[in-house]
Amino acid sequence: MDSQVIATQPTSAHGEHGHSPHLRHHFATVAQQREAASFGMWLFLLTEIMFFGGMFTAYLIYRNWYYPAFVAGSHWMIMWAGTLNTTVLICSSFTMAMGVYSAEMRNRKALLRYLFITLCFGIVFLGIKAYEWHDEWEHHHVPGLNFSINDFTHVDQRYPQDKPLAPDMAEKTQAYFSLYFMLTGVHALHMLVGVSILVVLLFHAWRGAYTTGHMTTIENFGLYWHFVDIVWIFLFPLLYLISRHQ
Amino acid sequence: MMHYISPVLWQFLQKWLHRFPLFPPEASTIAPYTDEFYFYLLLISLVGTGIVVAMVVGFSVLYRKERNPEATQIEGNTLLEATWTIIPLGLFLIAFVWGALLYFRIYNPPTNAMNIYIVGKQWMWKAEHPGGQHEINALHVPINRPVQLTMISQDVFHSFSIPAFRVKREVIPGRYTTVWFQVTQPGTYHLFCTQYCGTLHSQMIGEVVAMSPEDYQAWTATSTSGSSLAQNGERLFASLGCNQCHSGSPEARGPNLAQMYGTKVQLANGSTAMVDDAFLRDAILNPTLHQMAGFAPIMPTYQGQVSEEGLISLVEYIKNLNSNYRIQQTLTTSQIQPTGAAPAPGQGTVKQ
Amino acid sequence: MSSTSIVLPDQQTATMPKRSYLNSSYGLKSWLLTLDHKRIAILYLITTVFFFMIGGTAAALIRLNLLTPGGELMSADTYNKVFSIHGLIMVFFFLVPIAPAVLGNFCIPLMIGAKDVAFPRLNLTSWYLFVAGGLLELYTIIWGGIDTGWTFTTPLSTHYVNTHVISGAMGIFVAGFSSILTGLNFIVTIHRLRAPGMTWFRLPLFIWSYYATSIIFVLATPVIAIALALVMLERFTGIGVFDPAKGGDPLLFQHLFWFYSHPAVYVMILPGMGVMSEVVACFSRKRVFGYTAVGFSSVAIAVFSFFVWAHHMFIMGISNYSALVFSLMTMLVAVPSAIKIFNWSSTLYKGSISFDTPILYAFSFIGLFTIGGLTGVFLAALGMNIHLTETYFIVAHFHYVMVGGMVSAVMAGLHFWWPKITGRMYPEMLGRLAASILFIGFNLTFFPQFILGYMGMPRRYHAYPPEFQILNVLSTAGASVLAIGYILPGIYLLWSLKYGKIAGSNPWRAPGLEWQVQSPPLEENFIETPVVDFEAYDFEWLAKHENEVQTVG
Ligand code: HEA
Ligand code: HEA
Ligand code: CUA
Ligand SMILES: [Cu+2]
User: Fold this and answer.
1) Is the per-residue pLDDT at C213 higher than 70?
2) CA distances from C268 to A49, B296, C407, C442 (A)
3) What pLDDT sits at residue B349?
4) pLDDT band at A20 (very low <50, low <70, confident <90, very high)
5) Residue A217 pLDDT
6) Which band of pLDDT confidence, cut at 50, 70 and 90, is reported for residue A19?
7) Closest CA to B286 of A163, A174, A66, A164
């Protein structure tokens, strides 16, 4: 179908009149360029799925082997923080979608506003995550750096429903926390990248880009942002919720 | 298979190959099977490569530009293409089935095999015979008798390989693996570590000495260290205090271990498990994962306290434990002695 | 020119075009900041050849050390570093990138009638990532080396060796993104930038195999990225994903590693298969026999390649039943390769064959890849694998497919497109000589290793029992012949840059779109977007339109 687009209008050298200034010389039409860009973005997200896939597989296997350790580990997650962060991310996805919509409507003010709110949500998310990590560090839950099985071999008054684990099983909580830090760490890294790109986008949007009809960049960034959001939507139940009531 | 078709031909081939320095000695019952299969694979490879080379060379001669200045365009030919899809597929599938049968032959030991334990570590092989003989970088075995090796690594992956027997198996940290063979020719054979394991990987080699049963008897008699593996295990069992709970008495806090080896047990999580070497070793190190039904999860882990050799002795001891008579004897004598004296760390514990 | 070569139609009268991508701008900066896919291909060519020289030097050291059973040349530690570097460099910095990033970058847009790849800037970024990864690897080599083997087996790599595992893994991690982005770029390019009339079934088979390669890049590379990231973190901070003491499983690493690395071995062969189709068709003046079968077998290889990884772990304690499944799948994945080999061989049937350097390399490919592939079937058969695994039989197997197969194909492609890339011919007689030397040297080097393997000589051994010496000496002798076979083309190709005969736009009278423009091409490839009204390998069309070539100046 793309070839038909070209077939009807063979182009010559770039810089021809009547073309959008955003059309790169090797594309025939703006539509072709936009399709290529979003196709590329989807492929990129596919590679991201494979990237996280390795860790999710590890999670599923180890969870199966060391079920009690994973239950005990997840009890130490800070529920309010996780829930809040989930809410923050969902809201940010909404504002991001609104941002894309505003770009489509060529409304610069609204675009700036929504991008800014998204940026704030992103930063809040990272802040809360940092708080949680700090908390885990304080409790000596970081495998390899300062891990101690103490919390899992004794009953803690904060989690009286937990039976203490035998020491051998308590050691295995390290598998849980290793994966927890890997997964949330890599996810936070993606958020960090997203936030940095947002700053750049904001700057360009402020200068008037994206609201003149050429909004591929915003659209694609939106895809990325939603993807990172969706990853969290998987992480939250797997790490915080599913073993809650055992 | 070749030696069913023509024993004479097979004998001849074998003789010839032995003298040929490009072929390893064929010294186990498995080796002829492997070699047979090898010849099948060689044959299909020769035929396949032959056909391809014949096509390329033949067409090059026949249709070189001077001889055939004008090419004739041909789209393809479904029948031909189906043929050269299906024939290789068929040949490969035969290889798959044959290979699978051989694999199960090599990795499923006969039940009457004698067992020797192997511990691999950077960069040496330790062999522990049930009679208590220890060897380093050497392994003495009798011929004409199935021998099973139960192997484990103390650090990284190694691999135990005896080319003359055509057997090999990875030696893995934290898990027993097994391999078996039955030697047919007395002699001294290479033993290699074939999994790259660090600096001296190429020095992690040794000798397998296959002896006639009489010579083997003589060897075991002269090289014994005084106590058998099971006896070492018993000493360790007592010094680690295992006998306190696994005393075999009805009110004991741990399950009765006598004659447990080889049975199926009910686990606390509802599943059943076969009590084999791996189960026993894991139960000592990760009791929670092997919690037996009807007992409280009170057993401590011995992770980091018993060396792999120690674990092997314990396993060998429990394997051969027919009654709890000796355990109870030990317990009563130790009650007479003043308690409080820490049990002397026996051979096999890890010094801390 | 000997009498057997093709008549080169416009070579006598050919002149260098005045304007081309090579002289559209000058200066180092114009190269380092170029967005032109052809220039980027050349950047890649220079860097990958550089890495080949490092890897080749390491190979020479390996072979020298193995000349004597005691391994007197170097210490065990040094030897381990040398073969690790050899494997790492050759795989990740030479063979994986060379075909896609050099030949693919150069040819794909030209072949499909596009002006560039879809994302030129990303393309340049990929090269910089590759260089960054390469620099990290060089750092690793110079500051003490790495001795894990190219497979990074845990727990050896995470807990036991004390060499530069982190920077070594980091280099591959970074270069991996270059692979991912290259694959992504190609897929989008092939989907979205085909010229009008260039339907999927009019694409040269080269494009099909590069498409399959790109799928593997995109889907498999992220998995090794995460596996290596976990190794680095485990080494650096001590998290416990692969550490048995913390509940991890060292085998998991191997699953992740081979989930990438098995598909990656097809990355190291599929592009070569693409080159094969072009070269065999061109020099036998015939359409490839069974176009659809060859095209779809590339895709089949790519898809099946994701389900066979555990054949590298048959003796490692995977369950017997999964071993069965993986062995069966491996047998299945071998079939499409067989189809291709037979289709190429039959393409010669009733052709009009001329024997120039590219097709000599192509013949090497067919012979050596068949041997290499069939010995792969030995390894895939479970019972046989037990005896052969981790011996020199494997070393011989993969050198037959990677060096005998892929490197031959790369050489074929390089010679084939050299006139297009540079506008000049290489010296034909020397080319044939080098191809023959390579073939002989190769077999002398690696055939003895099959025998060594069956005799039981383990791989990665710094020293070996004396009875293996004769075969090792043969192998080392072969390697020195091989070295000549590589150095010779290096010299005459460089020479031809200045003194080679001017090639003209289509010296081979080849049918592909890339040959219908001037050599070297213009920066924008096509003055006008071509409209494709001919099939792939359409020699009849070509005969009619022989002289309608776009040349500027
Ligand atoms: C370019 C790279 C490449 C390619 C294409 C292949 C192709 C194949 N490989 Fe190989 N392989 C490697 C690179 C490659 N391999 C490497 C690097 C290793 C070692 C890694 C390490 O441990 O360091 C390895 C290791 C390896 C192993 C693991 C060995 C072990 O560790 O124990 C196995 C096992 O199954 C295997 C099998 C195969 C098979 C079945 C194919 C098939 O795809 C081959 C298919 C081709 C053919 C079969 C030939 C064509 C067929 C015909 C012409 C038909 C002939 C006709 C008749 C029979 C009538 N390979
Ligand atoms: C693409 C991949 C590739 C290529 C091209 C090669 C090429 C060669 N390889 Fe290698 N090889 C591997 C991939 C490759 N190899 C891998 C993956 C391993 C496994 C590593 C591991 O176990 O971890 C391996 C392992 C390996 C071994 C086994 C080591 C061991 O297990 O102990 C041996 C031994 O003979 C060997 C030999 C050779 C030889 C002789 C060549 C020859 O073809 C090379 C010929 C080239 C030259 C001889 C150089 C030519 C000279 C120049 C280009 C100029 C040089 C320089 C200067 C001017 C300074 N290789
Ligand atoms: Cu142990 Cu190699
Ligand atoms: Cu493989």
Assistant:
1) yes
2) 24, 56, 9, 18
3) 61
4) low
5) 87
6) low
7) A66
**Partner A, chain C 420-479, Cβ-Cβ below 8 Å:** none
- Tens of pLDDT, residues B130-143: 888 888 999 999 99
Query: Of A2, A50, A175, which has the smallest distance from its Cβ to C219's Cβ?
Result: A50
Share of residues in chain C with pLDDT > 70 (%): 96
CA pair distance C180, C100, nearest whole angstrom = 11
The ligand 1 atom at the shortest distance from the C-alpha of residue C314 is 32
pLDDT in tens, B202-232: 999 999 999 999 999 888 888 777 777 887 8
Averaged pLDDT for residues C449-475: 92
Is C398 near ligand 1, meaning CB less than 6 Å away? yes
- Quick check: C390 and B161 in contact, CB under 8 A? yes
Give the three-class secondary structure for B186: coil
How many whole angstroms separate alpha carbon C54 and alpha carbon C130?
A: 16
CA distance A22 to chain C (A): 14
Q: Residue A121 is part of which domain span?
A: 30-241
Range of the domain at C504: 28-545
Instruction: Write the CATH number of the domain with boundaries B19-107.
Output: 1.10.287.90
The answer, for C408 touching chain B at a CB cutoff of 8 Å, is no
**Domain count within chain C:** 1
- Chains in touch with C (3+ beta-carbon pairs under 8 Å) read A, B
- C-alpha atoms less than 13 angstroms from C-alpha of C479 in its C-beta half-sphere: 23
Question: Closest residue of C to A148, CA-based?
Answer: C246
**Does A17 fall in a domain?**
no
**For residue range C19-32, what is the model confidence (pLDDT) as tens digits?**
888 888 888 888 99
Cβ of A168 within 8 Å of Cβ of B297? The answer is no
Contact with chain C for residue A103, Cβ under 8 A: no
Number of B to C CB contacts under 8 A, please give it.
Answer: 281
**Prediction ipTM score:** 0.89
* CATH number reported for the structural domain that contains residue C156 in this entry: 1.20.210.10
Cβ–Cβ < 8 Å for B22, C455: yes
Pick from A65, A168, A171: which is nearest to B287 by CB?
A168
C464 lines ligand 2 (CB under 6 A): no
C550 falls within a domain = no
Does the C-beta of C481 come closer than 6 Å to ligand 2?
no
Assigned domain for C60 exists = yes
Average pLDDT, chain C: 89
pLDDT at B168 over 90: yes
- List where CATH 2.60.40.420 sits in chain B: 114-222
**Amino acid letter at C421?**
I
Cβ(B41) – ligand 1 distance below 6 Å? no
Pocket of ligand 3 (CB under 6 A): B 120, 123, 158, 193, 195-197, 201, 204
CB B96 within 8 A of CB C331: yes
Mean per-residue pLDDT for A91-119?
90
The C-alpha atoms of residue C397 and residue C452 are separated, in whole angstroms, by 12
- CATH dotted code for B229-333: 1.10.760.10
